[in-house]
Design goal:
With 245 residues, the chain is of the alpha/beta class. The protein has one domain: 3-Layer(aba) Sandwich (Rossmann fold), CATH 3.40.50.1820. An eight-stranded mixed β-sheet has the order 1-2-4-3-5-6-7-8, sandwiched between helices. Helix 3 packs across helix 4. It starts with a strand and ends with a helix.
Length: 245
């Protein structure tokens, strides 16, 4: 495996991006891995490596670079702690248009790398980035073949870029993995997502993971659920095998 961390120029500066892919056998389909709210950390780099070992060119960009932030470090459980409040400020500092500009820059970089096949792209986003993963499929419909949101937030909004209507603008297969208990994506939101996708006859699956809470796929979270996490890996890799070959 080849791992590297590089600065990729964007419209607003440079995003530090972790890239992992097999040493031989390329070019490899690209997976854009959008970070969750607690920012870049070794836990996410390990997940990127796991995707890469299945034969992908994985890009994990720092989305907080505009604020000069890379890693937040440990976060107290108290939602009123200064560290948590800072995290929510950083979340609010980015949005779909900004992240889509970053995505354009990531793909432009990968276009120049012989190890990457940017004609075949998959995406995945956790928590705040589920919407970014899905929007990548609508903004780059000729490249993104599969997009996944894992306990994503803001899945149903009144905006034209709401994830729940993404299939109207995308050719990709969509996957939504949802926690059964999630204050950030409650079941009524998930039900609206399901009903809209069904009405649109979308090429999409919405799966609820029984007994889980928001964050269940991250090994270092108190809510980590090993069985559910391993199922989510199986579902994601199957999604990519179907669409990124």
């Amino acid at each position: 495996m080849i791992d590297q961390q590089i600065e990729i120029p964007t419209k607003d500066g440079h995003t530090t991006t972790f890239i992992s892919h097999p040493e031989r056998g390329g070019p490899f389909p690209v997976i854009l891995f959008y970070m969750d709210a607690p920012a870049i950390r070794e836990e996410l780099r390990d997940m990127a490596r796991r995707f890469a070992t299945s034969g992908y060119y994985v890009m994990l960009p720092n989305l907080y670079y505009r604020s000069g932030v890379m890693e937040l470090g440990p976060l107290p459980a108290d939602p009123e702690s200064p560290e948590r409040k800072r995290m929510f400020e950083l979340m609010a500092s980015i949005n779909i248009p900004l992240v889509m500009e970053d995505t354009k820059a990531l793909l432009a970089h990968a276009d120049k790398d012989k190890a990457a096949n940017t004609k075949i792209v998959g995406t995945v986003g956790y928590c705040m980035s589920g919407r970014y993963s899905v929007n990548a499929a609508t903004h780059f419909p000729d490249r993104v073949k599969a997009a996944a949101s894992i306990y994503g937030t803001h899945l149903v909004t009144d905006q034209p870029d709401s994830p729940h209507i993404a299939s109207r603008k995308s050719k990709a297969e969509l996957y939504f993995g949802c926690a059964e208990t999630d204050i950030y994506a409650p079941m009524e939101t998930v039900e609206t997502l399901k009903q809209t996708m069904a009405a649109d006859k979308a090429r999409a699956e919405i799966e609820i993971y029984p007994g889980t809470h928001h964050g269940f796929a991250f090994p270092k979270r108190p809510v980590y659920d090993k069985a559910a996490a391993e199922r989510h890996w199986e579902r994601l890799l199957a999604l990519y095998r179907r669409n990124l070959s």
